[in-house]
Amino acid sequence: MPILSRERIVRIGEVMLTAGGAAPGHAAIVANHLADANLAGHDSHGFIRIPQYLEGIERGKLDPKAEPEVVRERGGVIQIDGHSTFGQVVATRAAEKAIEKAREHGVSMATMGNLDHTGRIGTYPEMAAKAGMAAIMFTGFAGGTFGNNVAPFGGRSRRLGTNPIAMAFPHSDDAPVLLDFASSMAAEGKLRVYRNKGQELPDAWVLDKDGAPSRNPNDYYDGGAILPIGGTQGGHKGYALSVMIALFGGMLGHVASPSGDADAWTGSTIVVMDVGGMAPIGGIRSEVQAMMSYVKDTPLMEGAASVLFPGEIEANSRRERLANGVPIDDTTWSQVEGLFHKYGVRDALDNGS
To answer: What residues contact 301, with CB distance under 8 A and at least 6 apart?
Structure first.
């Protein structure tokens, strides 16, 4: 199992995506995003995605050179057409603009549509938290033939995306309070990680093609569907959350980009609040740190090692992996390394140039 540094992941990502046709600036944004997802412990949204993006470019689904365009702007509201380029590029630009607008208006909202996979969406509210702001982001899919992989509660066919939601609030410089999860039992990339490792899922996260609950990740790829959060018993909650994220993210993103898929809602929305404009940010951070300390200082249930604040797992993973490197499973490494010759990058990467 290879152990890669952050710098090595970025280098491989940049070289391969550029060889696949990406504009150098776009390749840098995506490669850094993938490396940071791995550092945060979300391998499902990191290095493992390189083959997917190269395939998207080859199929013409992803335009690796297109520039996101602000198509409407009114007060603190921005609408962006991604012109089918990397979701990380579009969402990064949208978050940057939303942070600027929040400084001016106190609260801002940026919607974006017609974009490819956005990666780990917790990245973008984290950007706002680092700027002393709070943020919430919705990424939703519904309809069409691409992006649907979750069955609505009571159904067995794919109708919704994994539809993640993320929130961040300022806390400390390296660890905002962070919520970041799919409204399904797992993101599709998590299934990909278990499949690549040859492991069963921890629980019945998916339905097979006949509608039976399963722990075999291959059942999803053989025509099954992912269950909403709550699974077969409490999945009505995850399903309802998914529908609302499809509205706030997918539908609002869809209307921002008329050049996108007319038959589907696909998009994201980020809302940013300048909490530092309401009170001194240092005082807000102190209040949040005091609350997190109070929550963490709780007598433990049987079998538990500690109470963690939301986002602490990612912060701990980031520190550990920066020091010791990122383990890449053999199947994922084989998939990426197998493309070195195809894209003519082996010599450049072997020589470290």
So the answer is: none
